[in-house]
Amino acid sequence: MILIIVVIVSYLLGSIPFGYLIVRKKVGADIRETGSGGTGATNVSRRAGKAAGIYTLALDALKGAVAVVWAVVLVGSSSRAAWIVTAAAIAVIVGHIFPVWLRFRGGKGVATGVGVFLMLAPIALVCAGILFLAIVLFTRYVSLGSVVAAATIPLFVWLQSVFVTPVADLRPLLTAAVVCAALIVFAHRGNIGRLAHGTEAQI
To answer: Cα–Cα distance between 128 and 134 in angstroms, integer?
Structure first.
């Protein structure tokens, strides 16, 4: 029962479309009709300015962090705690990418993933963040940086466990990393297609 509650609440939390609401409030437009059609910070910045993009980034990341913290507090130290937290991490990103309020058409999950792994594996997140910045600075493609950083999160989670903070049972955390990374890469499938054809927008 607790697992079901955690998944539902985390999904609904992830479904709050901050980018959509901010753009609607600021410029009276539907962010899904701009650029990539996503509700994330990069697309919001293009439509409503950098400040709106920063607010979106912060609020989307907060969703991920809150989902994980709430799940940890709720389940405590039960035998299934780590797996329930993993379910919360996955559900909040699913909610962001497929929000029920916007007919399952949301963002790419990157900022929400940042919030999730800030709580679960901060060192791995920092490593992925450095890689993201290097790629974006070199290529000026935010989407490419996001895809590569997301895809390498499982590797950095494993390295963090091996060399920095050993985890007795890495399976729940690694499962969260693999599934969340797969979701984020899947959400960027349109960007990947445009990158392959050389039509993706640069910053």
So the answer is: 10
What backbone torsions phi and psi does residue 49 show, to the nearest 5 degrees?
A: 100, 165
CA angle 101, 104, 106 (to 5 degrees): 85
Q: Can you give the residue range of the structural domain that contains 37? A: 2-197
Residue 130, C-beta contacts closer than 8 angstroms, at least 6 positions apart: none
Q: Domain for residue 203, yes or no?
A: no
- Asked if the structure places residue 202 within a domain, the reply is no
- The string of pLDDT tens digits covering residues 102-148 is 989 999 999 999 999 999 999 999 999 999 999 999 999 999 999 99
Is position 130 within any domain? yes
C-alpha Rg value of the chain to the nearest Å: 16
Q: At what angle do helices 110-120 and 122-139 cross, to 10 degrees?
A: 150
The percentage of the chain sitting over the pLDDT mark of 70, rounded to a whole number, equals 99
Q: How many CB atoms lie within 10 A of CB 74?
A: 16
Model-wide pTM > 0.90: yes
CA atoms of 15 and 60, how far apart (whole Å) = 10
State how many domains the chain has: 1
